[in-house]
Amino acid sequence: MNILDLDHSLTAQAPIAQRLADGRATRLDLLALGPKLRLWSTERNYQRFVKQLQQRPNPRANTPEIFFVGSGDYHHLTPALLADLSEPVTLIHFDNHPDWVRFAPRRHCGSWVNRALKLPNIKRIVTLGPCSDDLENPQFKGGNLGAVQRGDLQLFPWQHAPTKVWGRIGDAAGHEQRENLLHWRNLADQDWPTFIEQLIQGLPTDAIWITIDKDVLASEDAATNWDQGGMRLSHLLHAIRALAASKRVLGIDVCGEFAKAPHSNVLKRWEAKSDQPPPERWSDTDLLRNSTTNDALIALFEELFP
Fold this sequence. Notes:
single chain, Arginase, Chain A, 8-stranded parallel beta sheet, 3-stranded antiparallel beta sheet, 11 strands, 33% helix, Arginase
């Protein structure tokens, strides 16, 4: 298990500290680079991250690589984890945000899905769980509805009202278009085990990668830098177990910790203040949920991939 220490959010958590101490986890010190990568990054700093990532220990054969990455502000680092995959893969993406914006910089936590779609071995991305207002007026905000229309990206909100669009997008796995509205197949209304079984049956590849932003979870299960979704931890654990039982998991990355961000970059400071809820909303007790949730995730990973 790899701990990418970008923002101090992980190493003090008991389940991670214990595994670092006994050698079940390895820490990669990225603290000097973390502020430069947070929210968005220049290509130069992104490539610096790639080079440091290559210094991690070689993974065991036939064992998925597990990464804990810190704040969801670093989700745009996921494509670096996917770059060396040697076979076709479906990316299963749990998130409260679709991260599909085309107007943002290329290496941005809100646009990284578009970069991942361009990787040669990513055959489809399935995004599960958004509740955020990114799905309101997505064409105006730069949402990549073209990828949804082609089927390269499937999107299943946890709970969201119909989305207004201009023009014909067409029906897809996650929605039905009626006139100028996309009516979503909201996951909160589905029988979860049945939905996951159907999802697995429709995946185009035998191999998968799972990427998790814990802001997909309800506030009862996580406390992040972003607005929280509605999925419960039990849903997430069930989905991972079912996916691992039917598909070959090549890797898993987890972000969505809470970490204060004293941005020195004026634009990042403005963006964080504009887009993120105030950090004061969480108490120390709230933040303990992240450790509890990580403990449950790690225990499941160790059970499934001994």
